[in-house]
Amino acid sequence: MDDILELADRLWTGESEISSAHPLAVNGGLSEVAPRTAYVASFARVSAFSTDDGLLLVDTGHELAAPGIHAAVRAWDPGRLNTAVFSHGHIDHVSGVTVFEAEAAGAGWPAPVVVAHEALPARFDRYRMTAGYNALINRRQFQLASLEWPTEYRYPDRTYRDRLELDVGGERFELHHARGETDDHTWTYVPGRKVLCPGDLFIWCSPNAGNPQKVQRYPLEWARALREMADLDVELMLPGHGFPVLGAARVRRALSETAELLESLVSQSLDLMNGGARLDDLLHGVVPPAHLMDRPYLKPVYDEPEFVVRNIWRLYGGWYDGNPANLLPAPEAALAAELAALSGGARRLAGRALELLAAGELRLAGHLAELAALAAPGDRETAEARASVFAARADEATSTMARGIFSHAASESDKGAGGPP
Q1: d(CA 413, CA 176)
Q2: 330-414 CATH
Q3: Which end of the chain has less Cβ packing within 10 Å, N or C?
């Protein structure tokens, strides 16, 4: 594996494509990226700071990766874990403390202190209430059929509201709250080292501000936090996913342009909403700035700007999409049966879906394939058409989220379900 700073430079300059190094993939082990500062390129990145009184970690990884993260950190620095900062409560960032706690207990060291924003415990409480749902949606998103959602969490020992300064080993670590991908987000600034850990506010791709299966995100507050970070004296940025960004000019540009993208999506969406547009008008009328979508760190390889627009509508406009037929709708299957009857049967709808697929009209094909499957659940021919259409949609998709959902739809039809459960 190449040095992660060299890989980051090649991605920034375009010498390597981001598609060859997905920011949510495991991209290597631990790299010392600055004096006494390391970066662990697990699924969720871990930033490690060696101090005169032990280690401070920003995030601790997923529980499945925790033993490897611990071993990598131990090979780099033998000091005890003094403090762990959770950038937010997503499970891939917060599940690795127990390995260090067990080590501390065995060695007779003081237990590590976990610090997070005050909204994080409520997230853990919600995860416990929705464990089944979260297992289902993450199986779809990541195509992991055996994924189980945890119900036990390491709650923080210390929380804060707006800002908190920590002194660890005589060094200052500044924690700042921002609503963005989550309501409990913390970004960390280490002024003595000129290092910034933005968490998932920057992840080397189009911002994850629109995930279709997750709770509300906050794009405008996210953009404000990015601009606040861009004004700091930073030479090295260590994000929650992706790759380090080295050099003040690059850090400032990455943060500012991510903010610009979010601001543009919000501004365009609100202009249309204020003019009386429906959600459908926003989905097909809001266009992200082309010069930003060309940036190697803003490619839609995980989330998509169109999904962000939906979240903006939900944030400012509620769930009603402007179509009165959707306010108190008929059951989807009843509508599908009626349209199938009008068109000559569910298989006619399925056949037309395949014609549209062949013509490259994948969005329309998806609608008709789904209607056909709903109108004739269990019918093999409609199931095969639905599988073909959504497999093609998955192949065309650029984002992890779209690809996961389309692949799941194709898979359930391949198994003979005919339509959605």
Answers
A1: 46
A2: 1.25.40.880
A3: C
pLDDT of res. 415: 77
Which range (112-126, 137-151, 188-202) has the least confidence? 137-151
d(CA 11, CA 32): 19
- Find the range with the poorest average confidence among 155-169, 289-303, 312-326, 404-418: 404-418
- CA 271, 274, 278 angle in degrees (round to 5)? 90
Which CATH number applies to 4-261: 2.60.40.1120, 1.10.3470.10, 3.60.15.30, 3.30.450.40? 3.60.15.30
Residue tagged 């403390």 (tokens): 97
Structure tokens at 70: 């611990």
- The one-character DSSP state at 45 is -
| Contacts of 259 by beta carbon, 8 Å cutoff, 6+ apart | 222, 223, 224, 226, 227, 230
The pLDDT value recorded for residue 28 is: 83
Smallest Cα–Cα separation from 255: which of 303, 216, 301, 292?
292
